[in-house]
Amino acid sequence: MERVQKVISNLGYASRRESEKLIIDGKVLINDKVAKLGDKVSSKDIIKIDGVAIDKEKANDKVYYLLNKPRGVVSTVKDEKNRKTVVDLINTDKRIYPIGRLDYDTTGVLILTNDGELTNLLLHPSKEIEKVYLAKIKGIITGSDIYKLKQGVMIDNIKTSPARVKLKSFSKKTNTSLVEITIHEGRNHQVKKMFQSVGYDCLKLTRLRFAFLDCKDLKSGEYRELNIKEVKKLYSLGK
């Protein structure tokens, strides 16, 4: 017997967090009864989401995609404002979702899958998966501010973990800096808030790398399937 939200996630229907929201919203039935958080199910139980039973055999067919996310696309499965989502960009009949999120105006590396186990492994804070970003910020960043970012800064009343920070270039003409920053947390709008905490607005943000994966061979909006070697390597990072 396992908690229903874990089963839904492991079957690849949604991430653990999204599975819990589906239950809270009353969209999940167990044997035609409304599920509650913490309910446990066995392999014999019938789980329905939005009135449709989960096909457990089909759900076990895992897929993995690497997307170079463009600007103006939301990192969700559905959007209340009917904006284009990252799922809309992938040609598949599987119910996939992104591992983590990139802001509407943030570009770069994003993994999409229906593998709930891998999603939970890679998003768990204890795994400290590296994410590398390139930020274009307003102003010429100082050495002392770079040091502050490296040591960790306060955002939302919580100090960030130490980060790697490199000044890539700056322009006095446009009064901007290009800064590469490597973090292993995944807090909401974290990179933008980190720069804001030391007095700089983030004008443009791109995720260059998630773990060992990058989008150097993909144009904006393009994607490819991950190969088995890459999937196994991701699993090894999460163990």
How does this model look, in words?
It contains 7 helices and 17 strands. The two termini are 23 Å apart. With 239 residues, the protein is of the alpha+beta class. Helix 1 crosses helix 2. Strands 7, 8, 9, 10, 13, 14, 15, 16 and 17 form a 9-stranded mixed beta sheet that branches. A 4-stranded antiparallel beta sheet has the order 3-2-5-6, with no helix packed on it. A two-stranded antiparallel sheet has the order 1-4. Helix content is 23%, strand content 30%. The longest helix has 11 residues.
Please outline the helices and strands.
Blueprint: E1 2-3, H1 4-10, H2 16-24, E2 28-30, E3 33-34, E4 40-41, E5 47-49, E6 52-53, H3 56-59, E7 64-69, E8 97-98, E9 107-113, H4 116-123, E10 131-138, H5 143-151, E11 154-155, E12 158-159, E13 164-171, E14 176-183, H6 190-197, E15 202-210, E16 213-214, E17 223-225, H7 228-238
